[in-house]
Amino acid sequence: MSIYDLLSQRYTPDVEPQEPAGQHDDYRTDRLRLVDGVAVTPAGMVAGGEVPERTVPVVSPVLQGPDGFRLLVHAVKDVVPVEEPRLARHSAKALRLHALIQTISLDALMLLEALPEGAGFDIVVSAPLRSAEAAEVVIDRLGAMVAASAYAAGLGTLHHSDGGRDPHTVLGVQGAAGQPYVLWIGADSLLDHDDIAGLHRQGLLALASRQAGMFPGEAAYALLVQRIPESGEDGPAPGWWLEAATRLEHPARDTLSLPDRQRLVGDLLARVWPEGEDGEACAPASLVMDTLELPGRVPEVLGPLLERWPALDVIEHGLSVSALCGWPGEALVPLQWVLALASLDPGEDALLLNLAEPNVSHAMALHACAPAATPNEAPPAPAAVDRRRS
């Protein structure tokens, strides 16, 4: 059964869809609201309340490292098969990205069930497609899926983004105005020779002759995000606020001593998660790291975290992206969002840390839009979504 058969089964509109309303041209560039998200990883599906166990890499049948041995990699197992000669002419990576995006697309459209009635949305696709023709193929296929769904009338713009580190920029309005919601779909795969060579040049690649490092991986993701108008925000709503990232430049990590690296992480924590007026800062309910597999990373991070929050159980509440899917390239940051959303209950907060770059550290905080419910009060929740495929 094809993905179009599944789509026609899942989406049969009972009423005539309404034209979207509520476009703005004055959205904030420093705040977004995360509503929901899903991801496909080598460890399995990530969704609300579903965080898979870490997986082990497997020996690639075709890829080898600069030491001449076969590489261990994290690959998504169940990928929708696609045949697209135009992409095959460009590169095997372009074809793989197309397959990963097709794999997540049905679950991505199901996120739209959480939209308020009549709300419009834009779609942004992020993937390292290196040619305009490759991007056009992916966009056209996705556009056809949306046109076959009950949400066709709500679609504003659908475009490919070249990526970038700042999600507030990636999800910004294209043109004069944009819809209040954005469906962000993307993927990356480092299971090719060029990306492996890049990891090796950065000293990040795990080899048979040197186990310390990260294994090449891949993932696909989809996030439903609300843009926030400058004119104000709606009342209490489920979801999480995402402010601008905290960025800290510093000397290369491998030139610093462990105490200096720990002080650096402590400074980053103080900036992204400041103390309250009472001099205390409540610990995040979830911590999502980029990786803990690089040499010295565990003591570098663990010391400052426990100094700040002695009761924080890093083993119980900490997640590492690279442990679930290897190094996912440009999919890293949105995948951290999805993992955070999947691990949080309504009213809980999360901290995201990215420390893999040698000279720059990044951190983001996800704070619940509404406070945690009291024992006698049910928390607000997004519209229920059944993500089981027909």
Task: Name its key features.
390 residues, alpha/beta, twelve-stranded mixed beta sheet, two-stranded antiparallel ribbon, disordered C terminus
Short description:
The protein is α/β, with parallel strands linked by helices and 390 residues long. The chain is built from 11 helices and 14 strands. Strands 1, 2, 5, 6, 7, 8, 9, 10, 11, 12, 13 and 14 form a 12-stranded mixed beta sheet that branches. A two-stranded antiparallel ribbon has the order 3-4.
What does this structure look like?
This protein is of the alpha/beta class. Helix 3 runs parallel beside helix 4 and helix 7 (258-272) packs across helix 8. The strands form 2 sheets. Strands 1, 2, 5, 6, 7, 8, 9, 10, 11, 12, 13 and 14 form a 12-stranded mixed sheet that branches. A two-stranded antiparallel ribbon has the order 3-4. The model is unreliable at 1-21 and 374-390 (pLDDT under 50). The protein has helices at 3-10, 85-90, 92-110, 132-147, 167-170, 193-201, 258-272, 297-308, 314-317, 321-325, 332-343; strands at residues 27-41, 44-46, 58-64, 70-73, 121-126, 155-161, 181-189, 218-229, 240-243, 246-249, 286-289, 318-320, 350-354, 360-368. The termini are close together.
